[in-house]
Amino acid sequence: MAASPATAGSRSNPAVLLTVTCLGQFMVLLDNTIVGAALPDMQHRLHTELTGLQWIVDAYVLLVAMLLLTGGVFADRFGRKRVYLTGVAVFTAASLVCSIAPSVGWLIAGRILQGIGAAALAPASLALLAAAYLVPQERVKAIGLWAGLSGIGLAAGPVAGGVLTDAFGWPAIFLVNLPIGALLLLVGLRTLEETRNPNAPALDIPGTVLSVLAVGALTYGLIEGGARGWTAPVILGSFTAGALLLAAFIAVEARRRAPMLPLRLFRQRLFTVSNTAMVVVGFALMGSSFFFSQFFVYVQGSSILRAGLQTLPVSLAMVLVSPYAGRLAARYGFRIVVTIGLALAGLGLMALGAVHADTGYGNVWWRLAIVGTGFALTMSPLTGAAIQAVSPQEGGLASGISTTTRQIGAVLGVAVLGAIVRSRQSGGASFESGLNSAFFAAGVVTLATAVFTGLWLAKSKPAKDTEAPQRSTAPDVVTTS
């Protein structure tokens, strides 16, 4: 039975809705950081090399990156409640598969399923919240709480991962998702109301498939190139296939009436520059974070629990600083805040490149905190810049693209920085030397991006409000479940 959009907020329990959506996003964000603490234990118990660890991380991030926009369209088209709970169910079942995986191959398969579940869960949780709060001021407050409370998962990940792995082994980091998922399904089925947009854009199946295959092929070449040889036929073939698939993706998107990635948006310099910078943010942040616990365990000899605590300054700084980044950008402008943030992050990463086995933690933690502070100052303003670059009706799409570009950068960061470490080791250097090179390289790229972004954002202008929207802005239809 259809109902007026105006009744959506009045018939639902705001506290329960906020709790359910925040807890779902918390579970997804927790999984972004909790795995890093368990990587040394996975390597030991599963008898895998660096390549295997890269796939454990990238298999998840790749699927999230490539399916996130499609997940949002699915939620609008087929129902936010349905897609959200389906995502929760898939994510929870995949967590069980990961926890009982007898080999790296099974674990990677479970991580792929987790990525599919997260790509449905995350955009649907925000869409449920946005559809329920019809008053703009209340919606802003609710989304702020959603971002803040769920963001605690980022800070809790390293500590929770260290504690659980130290006490029970790496499978415990996935088992922790089971009670959360079961609770969400039980409460969500009873309390959430179904909402959808009947005029949502059509699904872009060709674009989705081509994007997954293109980035997947490039990632395969980058991860496996160090082990198989950069001139091996399979590696050269993967790079060639990735380039051809990427070209096909661009050609398809340019011709579709409702593409997953509207290429016309990149005619706006502000939109292009902000998303380019966001790729670098994902690249440097995720690529370096992949090695933090490994540095403390393998280079400095820390226990897994202690290593989890030692990496905390990065995520803690991000949680504490992020709420102020948007306010600073509103007061001083995107360009100043983003440039300072990227510069801080780049300098922090370069400073980490000078850390060695005998460096005391008192001389390490502040470098990690600078990295976290820099990236926290950067992410929210970059998303804001991308949204300001397009017409008001396309703000949600711009935000989704910004998140996707960051995730793509994360996939490439784990692959490329891992390739640097492996290449250094193949040349006879130590693991410590390889990590120093990777951190330094990430810092140089980030610092260069700070200069590039500062120069080009100064020349950018937001889109005019008179631009015609390309996506439907029809009101949501709320139905009883």
Describe this structure in words.
The protein is mainly alpha-helical and 481 residues long. It is built from 17 helices and 3 strands. The protein has a 3-stranded antiparallel sheet with strand order 1-3-2. The radius of gyration is 22 Å and the shape is globular. Residues 1-11 and 463-481 have low confidence and may be disordered.
Short overview:
This protein has 481 residues and is an all-alpha fold. It is 78% helix and 2% strand.
Topology:
Blueprint (H helix, E strand, L loop, with lengths): L1 E2 L4 H4 L2 H32 L4 H29 L1 H20 L4 H29 L3 H33 L3 H4 L1 H15 L2 E3 L8 H24 L4 H23 L13 H31 L4 H7 L1 H21 L1 H19 L12 H24 L6 H32 L4 H27 L19 E3 L2
Antiparallel strand pairs: 1-3, 2-3
As a whole number of angstroms, the C-alpha radius of gyration is 22 Å
Number of helices: 17
Describe the main β-sheet briefly.
3 strands, antiparallel
Strand composition percent? under 5%
**SSE pattern, N- to C-terminal:** EHHHHHHHHEHHHHHHHHHE
Question: Which terms summarize this structure?
Answer:
single chain, 481 residues, mainly alpha, 3-stranded antiparallel sheet, 3 strands, 2% strand, disordered N terminus
